[in-house]
Batch of 3 targets.
Target 1
Amino acid sequence: MTREEAWALLREFNSDPFHLKHAVTVEGVMRWFANDYNHPDEVDLWGIVGLLHDLDFEKYPDQHCIKSQEIMRERGIDEVIVRATASHGYGITVDIKPESDMEKVLFAVDELTGLIYACSLMRPSKSVQDMELKSVKKKFKTPNFAAGCSREVIERGAEMLGISLDELIEKTILAMRSCEEKYNGEIE
């Protein structure tokens, strides 16, 4: 599957600019982590998984990570992509446990990118370029801030990856810096 095919599929089921921006953000973050986890030959695959991870969320929120599997299988999409995208709903909507580095990273960064993005909007710069770990940690400890971003899932993700929460946050900030221009660009 090419990036263009993945984008067309995403647009078929999503039109909300917020959802599209989140998809492009997670795509860029996943591409960054593919290199960080020494999978340079899979950067495009990791990006497509990031782009499609919430394929069904806008139209089928009650069947999130379930309906997407059906949609992708009907279209003959590689089972690696189907499984990886669905695994980020582990313990929430599905029992597909993240096993590969790619699946664990997606599980760990999905909610965290939302929290970091919300933190960036509170900054004068409205950017992650000058974001610091301490700023995110402060907001992380404030349950009412970006309340939709599950702290428990983020912590479980760091644990799955075998890294500290601080390291996960720092790396995700760096990853978001690498793609901020793209996710702040116009969504076609």
Target 2
Amino acid sequence: MFEVAVIEDPAAAEVSLDPVRARLLAELAEPASATMLAAKVGLARQKVNYHLKALEQHGLVELVEERRKGNVTERVMRATAASYVISPTALAAVAPDPDRSPDQLSARWLLAVASQLVRDVGALITGAAKAKKRVATFAIDGRVRFATAADRAAFAEELASAVTTLVGKYHDDAAPGGRDHRVIVAVHPSITHDMTQTETKEF
């Protein structure tokens, strides 16, 4: 089981967003049969089997083992990942395009860039899984509290300068066998733990 899996197929995304099937995916973090799941979610075993077939068809759950009980063969299933991310690729026709209106100070542009990040890293993960290789990535996730809007602006300016300097130092267009990498740096207000409020100060 993967820690995170990317859903790129529109049909698989639709299947995963069904409330009942999403609940079954959550329950299947640990292997279980339709009978076991039926008791947990309060549905008939036949109904659970119906949903499991749809999830299995789209690669969201997998068979772990088959157990023979009398005249019945019980299939024990497990989710293919502990959690899932739906790639913007699933909505290709209306996926955000950061190049359409680039604006470093726009939250919507930041969202478009983040969507592209999910799409690109998702594609890399999918390709690497098929090739049985790892993807070379790096990320920093931190928190900073600014006293004033001026401090935030100064931080952004220094950060941009530092990144520009590093890119200039290491970028080599002429490197034989070199490979391009994308660098994304973002700063946004923090969200509270209950996800119901965001910082509302002007700066």
Target 3
Amino acid sequence: MAVLCWFLSAGVYIAAKWAAPEMPSWALCFWRLSLACLILLPIVHRHHGAMLALIRTRATEVVMIGAIGLTLCQGMIFTGLNYTNATTAGIIMALSPIMTMVLARFVLGEPLGPAKALGAALALIGMVVIVARGDLSMLLRLQFNPGELWIVGSALCWGLYTVLLRRSKFGIELLPMVVLLLGAGALAALPFYLWEMTSGARMSLHADGLLALAYVAGPGGALMYYLYNRSVESLGASRASMLLYLQTVFVAVLAYLILGERLHDFDLAGAAFIVAGIVLATVVKPKVRAEPA
């Protein structure tokens, strides 16, 4: 279930890139969140009472977290895909667990440790290599591709969302909480969607756009979230989240097969630093000294 979840999630990058000429970024974000929420809402009908009680007592907090983790995160990805390819976006999003560790140190006071700190530094170098496209002169002139910067912002939002959700401890089961956050995210996306329409961006959906929207709302939306929550129940949050790195591989493979994208040298170099950072931060464990008897 976890592997299928991240495979379907990778398909969202491909569908968003495919539908970009027909569907503006924030329109895709709004309709994905809205439709996924409506699809999942009947599945959590037994929890509607607890969900309504939570809305009455902590609505502002739910909307804020949904806006950061679902509205801004997804809207930034979809916007970034207008300027960069899906493969690069997938590699950069692999940074989000590292960003979560760093943010957890400052927001939750969780220890970082030397291995995690070094891993975060290596992953950061990898991100800079990709954003600068392997050209040091671009870095010195501060000339970056806006697409990669949007994706970096999305990874940061996902890390902050994860930390805030962990701190909030809403006290209801994971799937109904996700449905609430999807609804909150759709509500937060509505002003961006309306602004997009007033600025002249319009949907002109044909076959490609309709198929892409159906995918990101159904298999890549409602079903993906459902599978993720089931995998968390079976594997635990840490093990299920670790499989997120499969998404990067799936994005690269699907982008090659469907979009005809190729990996660049700077993608490979940046990915090498990111992988090294991930290994240091998540695999290497600090040694525990045995206390004298």
